[in-house]
TrEMBL record:
Protein name: tryptophan synthase
Subunit comment: Tetramer of two alpha and two beta chains.
Pathway given in the UniProt record: Amino-acid biosynthesis; L-tryptophan biosynthesis; L-tryptophan from chorismate: step 5/5
Catalytic reaction equation(s): (1S,2R)-1-C-(indol-3-yl)glycerol 3-phosphate + L-serine = D-glyceraldehyde 3-phosphate + L-tryptophan + H2O
Organism of provenance: marine metagenome
Keyword Cytoplasm recorded: no
Length: 131
């Protein structure tokens, strides 16, 4: 992963604005549009959350968006959510190579996907860090 983008921000800014969005909410295409708007705004870091079916550590808003993203994915029979999340990052990297992008996930989806495969795909997509 490219920590240089994160290092740059932490070295040159006192205050950092990080915004979060749930991958696939309300649907895949809207996620890309929302992410592009955020990347083009004055945020410093974009955090994209991978929806999880049992998000007990999250508050009601993230729980709700996770459930709706999973529902949308199941209804539209799109590719797996982790793959879709990396597709969003790849799309963003076509137009912005400077802003750090973090991916947030519970361990269970990463473990089921494969830790090595997840790390490799995250790096290829242009992810800067994992929460």
């Amino acid at each position: 992963m490219n920590t240089n983008r994160l290092d740059h921000i932490s070295n040159y800014k006192k205050s950092i604005l990080t915004l979060y969005l749930t991958s696939g909410y309300p649907d895949f295409n809207s996620s890309i549009e929302i992410a592009q708007i955020l990347i083009n705004s004055n945020i410093d870091i974009l955090e994209i959350g991978i929806p999880f079916s049992d998000p007990i550590a999250d508050g009601p808003t993230i729980q709700n968006t996770s459930f709706k993203a999973i529902e949308s994915k199941n209804k539209n029979n799109t590719k797996p959510i982790i793959d879709s999340t990396f597709e969003i990052v790849k799309t963003l990297r076509k137009t912005d190579m400077k802003k750090p992008i973090l991916v947030m996930s519970y361990l269970n989806p990463i473990y089921q996907f494969g830790i090595t495969k997840f790390s490799e795909n995250a790096m290829k997509a242009g992810v800067d860090g994992i929460v």
